[in-house]
Amino acid sequence: MGVRGLQGFVGSTCPHVCTAVNFKELAEQHRSQHPGCTPTVVVDAMCCLRYWYTPESWVCGGQWREYFAALRDFVQAFTTVGIKLVFFFDGMVEQGKRAVWVRRRLKNNREIARIFHYIKSHREQPGRNMFFIPSGLAIFTRFALKTLGQETLCSLQEADYEVATYGLQNNCLGILGEDTDYLIYDTCPYFSISELCLDSLDTVMLCRERLCESLELSLADLPVLACLLGNDTVPEGMFESFRFQCLSSYTSMKENADKRGNVILAVADHIAKVLRLHQGEKKLEEMLPLGQNKALFYKGVASYLLPGQTSPWIFQKPKGVTTLGKQIVSMSTDPEFEPESLVCTHPESKEETPLCTHPETEQEDPMNMEPEMKQQVTMVSDTEILKVARAQHVQAESYLVYGVMSSGEIECSNTLEDALDQALPSQAFVYRPMRQRVYSLLLGAGGDGASSGPVIREWFVHSGNPLRHPDLVRPLPMHVPGGTPSLKVLWLSQEPGVEARRMDTLLACLDLSASREELQAVESPFQALCCLLTYLFVQVDTLCLEDLHAFIAQALCLQGKSAGQLMDLQLEHVDSRAVQLGSLLVRGLSMLVLVNSACGFPWSNSDFMPWNVFDGKLFHEKYLQSEKGCPAEVLVEQNRSRLTRFHDLKSIVCKACMREDRRIVSRQHWRPHHPGGHHPRLCQGGPWLLVRLVSVECREDAHEKGGKKNKTVVPLGKTCRGFISESRNLKGFSGRIVGVARMVY
């Protein structure tokens, strides 16, 4: 993240760039300089997740009540001294940065493999040096902050650009985060979240002006330096030989700098003494070995220019406009043109005037999306509905919906899953049928769900997926009693009876319409949990009665426990299967955010927030007790009222599963004939491994054949049982794979 090597360089070679500051004092100075203006800190939330997650336990699925309490303390510390916080979250991955995203996800896979190896070897959680944030932390942090009354926004591109823009245009006190790109942007001051002491509100300010003094550069030179060193736009290896040449000719080596530090000094020296000498006379491609990477380099430099800012390093020309995110940059290397500065302009502007040049400029209305719509081909043609989806996305009220409707491309990061445990499927597959029905609702479904209809590109991390290409997934037809209502009805209508239609549609997305009456009779917050558990147990044959007992018991016991009580829980040991089950359930809760927002919010968000229905350590405790064969009375901690509700909820889930021909049995039924307690159909690799193989083969087949008509799209819209039974009629699947499927069953 950010500029390669710059963080270490600042800490070791230029420590004077870092200045100790106190937020309370800064806020008082800001109020005296700007009377009537509330000091505002804009927070890059994605950089802060590790800082915010202070609970000791992290592998069991998340200590959500403890985490919520930590967020509340964080917000309170700033509001007490009169500082307003505005939080930004990444809304989507830009295409130009997909390769970086993939590299990080594959690196995370290796880290997760080491975590599970440690758990199996030591039966305990690894140390903090192996810390991995709980699954779903980013999405649920948005809702936690909104619950705490905080302004929370989701970006339409990389969040750092929007954070820097917001800070500049709103005359903010500063940016709080951990990304060296904020040293490159010419925006408000940048403060380190990792150095923040919450009790005193002391932290470190990284001063870009002092960095420029140390490097003998101007602020306008920093984007060029960043691209030559490597960042998320320009790969680090692209200018490796150039940096080596700079280092070879550099004569002012610093003893206190390591090799990378001296490289940064050498490149900065080259910019100051060579490039700037010919600035305005020669183009960058005449002074740098850009070659075929010229366009990418210019794009990287321009990506640091905020609305209204210019760069002396790029020539301007009214023709040949290149779109960069939400801005438009005019670039030219025509020698007949006078060397002028690059200007960021508004997409609808006919003149090259700055979009925003003053902090008091009116902010963009999230409902006003015509500029983007004119430039972008979307999956949905209804502009009114697309406006609503965009506004909900920007206000962090929905999840994945706008990505599906605008670009038809979504992603999901790593989950704590054991790649060596073939008995439990990846959450990417478990919740795919649910997503496919949502795609049907948002985009319209094809007739057979496999060979027609729009294609969604899913970048979901799971074992065996090299992420070279996205999985190509089509919608599954939905069966809503009375017919599927339109999005305008679900999202905009206030007519009587619409709320019931929203609920019917939500249950149809989970394929639970047959159990509508029983599930709707369950009280909050257990209704959403029962729906999710029913869906989960229908999809995954290897889940047993003991698992269901643990899920229900922890949800019931959670209602009477404080964050402090949960913190004091001590586990006998950590079980790797329970770790994956905890993450599987939390990912399911995040999928309920998608379904609920797509259906017009029939549920209150609080009904399925994890701090209301799930706690990692508490679930782990109940799982271990259930595995030992402890009776329900022990699981619900000898509480008679809980015991009654336990049996009621268990009965509802089991009956709903039976309607789908899924009988939930005790693990004891498997053990006599299958040592180790593994499900009989999964002992030899099993159907979920088969589904993974089919997924990979079909994905590669699609890209090998090319061409729209020849693409084989992975349906993966059924349980294993349904998938095999329908495979005879699927076009595009090889006979060899189908043959293996029949042999397994």
UniProtKB/TrEMBL annotation:
User: Per the record's keyword annotation, is Zinc-finger included, yes or no?
Assistant: no
Q: Which InterPro entries match?
A: Coact_PPARg, PIN-like_dom_sf
The UniProt entry, under CDD domains, shows:
PIN_FAM120B-like
Keyword Manganese recorded: no
- Its domain of life reads Eukaryota
Region annotation Disordered: where it falls in the sequence = 338-366
Similarity comment: family membership: Belongs to the constitutive coactivator of PPAR-gamma family.
Stored PANTHER family: CONSTITUTIVE COACTIVATOR OF PEROXISOME PROLIFERATOR-ACTIVATED RECEPTOR GAMMA
Listed name of the protein: Constitutive coactivator of peroxisome proliferator-activated receptor gamma
